Amino acid sequence: MSDVAKAELHVHLEGTAPPELVTRIAARNGVDLPERLLGTDGRFRYTDFLDFLATYDLAASVMRTGQDYRDITYEYLCSCAAGGAIYVELTASPDHAALVGMSDEEHLGGIAQGIDDARRDTGIEGRILISAVRNFGVEQALRVARHAAEYPHPYVVGFSMAGDEAGFPAHDFAEAFEIAAGAGLGCTIHAGEWAGADSVRAALSLPVTRIAHGVRAIEDPALVSELADRGIVLECCPTSNVVLGVYPSYETHPLGRLRAAGVRVTLGSDDPPYFGATIDGEYEVCATRMGFSSDDLRDITRTAIDAAFCDESLRAALFART
Q1: Strand, helix or coil at 289?
Q2: 278, CA 20 to 30 Å: which among 2, 18, 81, 107?
Q3: Measured in whole angstroms, how far is the alpha carbon of residue 205 from the centre of its chain?
Q4: Is there a contact between 143 and 178 (Cβ–Cβ < 8 Å)?
Q5: Cα separation, 316 vs 267, whole angstroms
Q6: N- to C-terminal Cα distance for the chain?
C-alpha cells in the first residue's frame, strides 16, 4: 500500500516504543527494567487485556525525561513516514508522566520537539491528544482536562480517555469531557472494545465526534444506524482487536460491515510493538485480508483527515497530499 497516503488517529504514544527503545531509555535513565516486562523472546509480556494495561504501565515507568518523549515521538513518526503516513495524532498520557515526576510542560515539550524534528526530516505532521486513564479515577481525569483547558498548547488538539472501559463507565467522566470540549478541544473516547454496544451508546452521551475502537457497535443494528446518521467516526484497530481476542480473525472483524452500513471509519495501530502492528500494516491487512481496494483505503485516509482535530489550514494541506 505504498502508493496510498496514510493518516492515523489512534495510537498511544507510550505504547509506540518497542522493547529495544524502552531498554535503551531505561539504561540512559539508570533504572532497571521491570522484571516481568519482557519475555525470554525479548517481546513485551502479557496474558490478557488487563495484564496488557499493567505491562504498558511498566514500560511507561522508565520514561522519565522530555528527551525520552522526544525520542519516542521522533522514532515513531519517522517509521510512520517510511510507510507512507502523512499525519498522526499521538495519544499522550500526562498521568503516566506525572507518576515519574515529570511536569506537563516537560512532557509536552519533549513530544513537540519530536514532532518538529520528524517534520524536518520526513515531512510528516503530528499533533497530540491528551488522554485521561479511566482506571486512574475521576479526579485525575478532571485534573488532566482542566490543565489542557487552562494551559493550551499549539500541538494539543484533542482530549481522549483510555483504560478499562468495562470497569469505569463513560458517564462518570462527563464533567471532564465538558471541560475539554468547552476549551475547544476535539473529543474521543475508548468504547466498544472490551465492553459491548452499550458502552458505545454511553459514549455518545458525551461531547465526542469520534470513538476509539467502537467496533462492537455492530452488535446493535440501531446503534450502527445512529453512528452513520450522526457521522461519528470510529478509530478502528483491526490487528489490536485480533491479537487481543476481541475478534478471532481479520475475516470476522466488522470493519467492512460497519463501513458498508455508512459508518465513517479510520485505521490505527493502537500500541504497535505490543501487537506486531504498524499503520502501514493496517492498510495492508485491509487490502489483503478484508477486501479493501486502493480507492477504499484512500477514502479511509481522507475520512481520517476530515475527522482530525487539527486546524483547517493543516487539514487543507493534508488533503492536497492524498
Answers
A1: coil
A2: 107
A3: 21
A4: no
A5: 20
A6: 13
Region of 245 on the Ramachandran plot (φ > 0 left; ψ -120 to 50 alpha; else beta)? left
Number of neighbouring beta carbons within 10 Å of residue 50: 14
pLDDT band for 1, please (50, 70, 90 cuts): low
Cα–Cα distance for residue pair 87/319, rounded to 1 Å: 10
Three-state DSSP class for residue 121:
helix
DSSP per residue, 220-256: -HHHHHHHHHHTPEEEE-HHHHHHTTSSS-TTT-THH
What confidence tier does 118 reach under pLDDT thresholds 50, 70, 90? very high
* pLDDT tens digits for range 235-288: 999 999 999 999 999 999 999 999 999 999 999 999 999 999 999 999 999 999
Percentage of the residues of the chain whose pLDDT score is greater than 70:
99
CA gap 117, 141 in Å, rounded: 30
Q: How many CB atoms lie within 10 A of CB 178?
A: 14
Mean pLDDT estimate for the chain? 95
List residues with catalytic annotation: 193
For residue 66, give the H/E element and its range: helix 66-82
Residue identified by cell 471541560 is 179
Task: Name residue, grid cell 521522533.
Answer: 74
The set of cell numbers assigned to 137 is 479515577
What's the confidence (pLDDT) of residue 99? 83
Q: CB neighbours (10 Å) of residue 165?
A: 25
Q: Which of 155, 10, 153, 14 is nearest to 92 (CA)?
A: 14
Residue 21, SS3 per DSSP = helix
196: cell is: 459491548
209: number of Cβ within 10 Å: 16
Provide the grid cell at 39: 519475555
Contact by Cβ (8 Å): 93, 161: no
